[in-house]
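User: Need the bound-state model for flavin-adenine dinucleotide:
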Amino acid sequence: MSKKILVWFRNDLRLHDNEMLVEAIAKSDSILPVYILDRRSFGETKYGTLKTGNIRAQFILESVLGLRNALKQIGGNLLIAEGNPEDIIPQLVQEYEITEVYHHREVAREETHISTLVENALWKLRINLKHFIGHTLYNKEDLPFPIKDIPDAFNQFKKKIERDSIIKPCFAAPDRINVAEVIDWGTLSSLEDLNLLPQQKDQRADFEFTGGEAEGLVHLQKVILAMQQAATTKNLILVSKLSAWLAMGSLSPRKVYWEIKKMESVPNTKAMFNHILLGLLWRDYFRFMFKKYGNTFFSPDGFGSQGLVDVANEQENFNKWRNAQTGFAVVDAVMTELNQTGFISNIARQTAALYLINNLEVSWVLGAAYFEEKLIDYNPASNWGNWANVAGVGNDQKSKSVFDLDKNIKNLDPKGNYSITWAS
Ligand SMILES: Cc1cc2nc3c(=O)[nH]c(=O)nc-3n(C[C@H](O)[C@H](O)[C@H](O)COP(=O)(O)OP(=O)(O)OC[C@H]3O[C@@H](n4cnc5c(N)ncnc54)[C@H](O)[C@@H]3O)c2cc1C
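Assistant: Bound-state model below.
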């Protein structure tokens, strides 16, 4: 019997640096690349927010179609289905006589729960679900400590990992692929099918995110060009806007790292290199912390207690905040930018979060749930991990004292014109 591997794509929508795909091609006669649009990811949360708002939904759809195009260019295609992976994957296994299923391991509870359901369903068919690791800069296996011993303090984590671990080279993108014979490769739902409306462009938005690996790679080259230019202009770019493609897995963090590292010999680029690398380390850190502590990050008390919550006015204050009607100009400008574009800088995110938690005394989980709906670059570990940290209920209790709303506002809006420029 020929060996056929089903490659289940989730938040890893790329050909480059994709060990799962490389191994599937090497170990099979043909593969069946599959993406499943799971409606549960578009439902409502218990906080009355959407799990995925229109801006990220649009980006996801573009990213999936981007992957299909990329696979077609190397002689393949992507089977697109809609429903529950735990129902669809076993059906496909039987229909196409699949011998093994590959996927990338996730860390947050809903995603890992779905993996478990798929694994259990496949188990009944005596088919193995093989897990790969491909979302982080550093591989779990290469860490100088087991997950349970990863330092809780970010600075210690950074110091140890940089001293004792390695960043692996990228896997090359395949240039040829042999896929199973499929009569109907399926079509992808539209935004309207998901009951979502397209976002109208705001004039103040000077950047457009388009999903897909090709677009992510082009954007990465623009970041590198900006680094080159900054070497002479001394104009540091501290907002790379790489996060949306990283979140969809259309760019791998290793690809970003090795590309920006090529700039090492260019004078004056060190500060930007260090800035992006620091961000990638924070990203890894939260992912590993999720692996270590799991669901604790989703609980209002986290690893401590937020302190004051104005229970009586919580919903009203939350609504003012999310509708950009707090009356506090910078916060309202930041929330308008988030609502219109799906993206705000790190300092703007901290500002909005600090104001919600400390000034409006709203539970941080409502803010995190709202960012989950709105952010184009949402990923569970980065979002809930950062929110827990800002609320002072993260696992690194030392980080609590780092945040200062007044200082943030001075940095974010030194000229008092943020609501007009959105430039941070
Ligand atoms: C309340 C709050 C919620 C957040 N939610 C998310 C989220 O859902 N998804 C997300 O990707 N980031 C999140 N962040 C982290 C950070 O704000 C964004 O990653 C960053 O602003 C993206 O912009 P950039 O690509 O220009 O980042 P750069 O500053 O250019 O950094 C390069 C990359 O490093 C990573 N990164 C940078 N800072 C952080 C950080 N503090 N934590 C984790 N990763 C980081 C991102 O992948 C980013 O693309 C959140 C931060 C806060 C304070």
